[in-house]
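The records we work with from here on pair a chain with its fold. These numbers are not coordinates but entries in a learned vocabulary of local backbone shapes. To see the layout at work, look at the sequence and tokens printed below.
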Amino acid sequence: MRSLLDAYADRPNPRTVAVVGNQPLARDPDRAAAVDACDLVIRVNGFVMDEPGDEPVTGSKVHAVVFNRALRATPWVFRDYSTRLYLMVEPGRLHWEPDVIPAWWPEDLGLVPVSNREITIPLSNALGLDGAQAHWATTGTMAAWIARTMYPDAHLLLTGYSFIDNPNQTSWEHASGDSCIVGPEHQIAAEGRLLASWVDSGSTTLMR
């Protein structure tokens, strides 16, 4: 996966990596500029990008998309898809999800399944989740984990992660589209503690 991400990044061995979650965020030119200045930008599920003439929020750059089968596609998800890497996380396959490509996926667009052995299980262990239970990380935290573990020496920028400040929420607001419940499979308080520990270590910047 590292070699694939390198191939789509602005430069080999990225020194700065941004992961943009789907929390609704206010206008912030500094945040948008910081995201777009990164060598590798990863966005999650039904993401939003700044358009020309819009007030800047999270920038307009994307090299890789981390998504799951419950993706609610926005107008930006498949735009310029040939220039992006699409990584599908499949934690539910450890329990009940079938091994099928989503029926709505474009026929001419390839995707790369994310290894549960290499990514999902180590992340669950880091979160203290019981592997026998149907619990796994959110797609946003999986994207952040991919960035942190693939590029341990890079500086990581995170934005759009509401559960770091609100670990007890029971529903999600999205930058685009309807809200939805926080699935019972997720333990977002543990995820928030993990990401906050990276910020505390100095290896990661959180922009709210």
